[in-house]
Write a structure and sequence with these properties.
422 residues, alpha+beta, seven-stranded antiparallel sheet, six-stranded antiparallel sheet, 5 helices, 28 strands, elongated
């Protein structure tokens, strides 16, 4: 189940004893009032110290100031008033939620979560294809061209193909008949044989369409449709015409106001041997589990055969993607997938907002983020506290190792025969 950055950060905050969460009962642009909460309002009983929250950070997690971070400059226990600096753009209102961070800046905890996810892995099936973004996992649709259609990346579990992994599919909503979207064009050789293989799903009584289109001569080459609400495979071969230099694969629907989905768009030249590996596959020899040719006809009834032993990995340091794979047996018109371990976040990637989610196991990512948080605290601690934080860091490391043994697929991928490297 996908979990948000906010949920992960809130749990890390508790486990490092770095702060608390609360709900405002009102406020202004310079105050946050938390009445009737004994952690903030002692009713004038002189129970709470007025310096208790001074110097802490407050991060609002709902309301007009959602995401805003401010410094608590003063605390009045009688009535539960936190004075904030700098002045906010909007007044704090009743039911606005917040976090108070005492030990680390909130952004540091966000960074701990992202750093953890960059070093956490899952098993993925990546389609080798001549088109970019073949598995629809690239964020957003900025590289897509559209005609009478609006594409988005859909993360709803009902619209993803669990059999082959991945967190997203491409959703296309048409505004007119035969609307379509396509990712960047493919350079091709004229009068040559190619194959197209894509998973499709048509919502309602709609008909998903897949069109191989000659961009050079502005003409359709071949097409096929899918008119079912469940996922199915659309595949066909096509011959590039004379003087054809580029093709696109148009993904759309025959009807207006139609909603259709696509995933794993594979275009291969028949008998082509060499394909670039994805950029996230930084260490192919270690992270590739298998190289598979799929022969099935439905997404959930796929038969496969391994072509690992006949494959070679080749490095080209000057290429955009430094590694490619050579398939000595060719493609035979059937799709090739790389089965490999993949990081939840790419290098330098991050969960960009509190609402951004990850499919990593909650306890696993929390335990890994806690390690990074304790390391920061250990490194920042005065000499008198250094050993205490070192002990907490060691305890957190042991828990993270336990979670790694449970969830990290690399533990099961040690050894085994790999593609030849040259």
């Amino acid at each position: 189940m996908a979990v948000t950055r906010e949920a992960i950060r809130g749990e890390v905050l508790k486990r490092i004893r770095g702060g608390i969460t609360g709900t405002a009962t009102g406020g202004t642009t310079t105050t946050c009032v938390v009445a009737n909460d004994v952690r903030f309002d002692d009713g004038g009983g002189s129970i709470l110290d007025s310096t208790l929250y001074e110097g802490d950070y407050i991060r609002f997690t709902s309301g007009d100031e959602d995401g805003t971070i401010a410094l608590i400059s003063d605390f009045t226990p009688n009535g539960g008033t936190l004075t904030l600096k700098p002045t906010l753009s909007n007044a704090i209102a009743n039911t606005n939620t917040f976090e108070i961070h005492r030990r680390l800046h909130p952004n540091e905890l966000d960074d701990c979560v992202s750093r953890a996810l960059r070093a956490m892995y899952y098993v993925d099936y990546y389609p080798l294809s001549l088109v970019s973004d073949p598995d629809m996992e690239t964020s957003g649709v900025s590289g897509w061209t559209n005609s009478n259609a609006t594409p988005t990346k859909d993360t709803d579990s009902a619209d993803n193909v669990d059999a082959l992994g991945g967190a997203q599919s491409l959703q296309v909503v048409t505004s007119s008949t035969n609307g379509y979207s396509y990712v960047a064009t493919v350079d091709v050789q004229s009068e040559s044989a190619y194959s197209c293989w894509v998973m499709a799903k048509a919502d309602g009584a709609f008909t998903a369409s897949v069109i191989a289109y000659d961009q050079t001569n502005s003409a359709s080459i071949d097409s096929k449709t899918w008119a079912h609400r469940d996922w199915g495979i659309v595949e066909f071969g096509f011959q590039t015409p004379s003087n054809c230099d580029q093709v696109s694969i148009r993904l759309g629907a025959e009807e207006t106001s139609a909603t259709v989905h696509f995933d794993n768009l594979i275009v291969q030249r028949n008998a082509r041997h060499s394909y670039e590996l994805p950029s996230w596959l930084a260490n192919p020899e270690a992270d590739i589990i298998d190289v598979l040719r799929y022969n099935g006809t439905t997404p959930f009834n796929l038969t496969s055969s391994s072509v690992m032993d006949e494959s070679q990995i080749v490095y080209s340091p000057t290429a955009a993607n430094p590694s490619s794979i050579i398939l000595d047996t060719g493609t035979s018109g059937k799709p090739i997938f790389i089965k490999a371990v993949r990081p939840f976040l790419a290098e330098n990637g991050s969960l960009s907002t509190d609402a951004t989610t990850t499919d990593a196991d909650f306890e696993w990512v929390v335990s890994r983020a806690v390690i990074h948080a304790f390391k920061l605290l250990k490194d920042q601690a005065p000499g008198s506290e250094a050993q205490e934080w070192a002990n907490l860091y060691a305890q957190a490391t042991r828990e993270a190792r336990r979670q790694n043994r449970r969830w990290d697929p690399r533990a099961a991928n040690a050894g085994g025969k790999k593609p030849e490297v040259r």
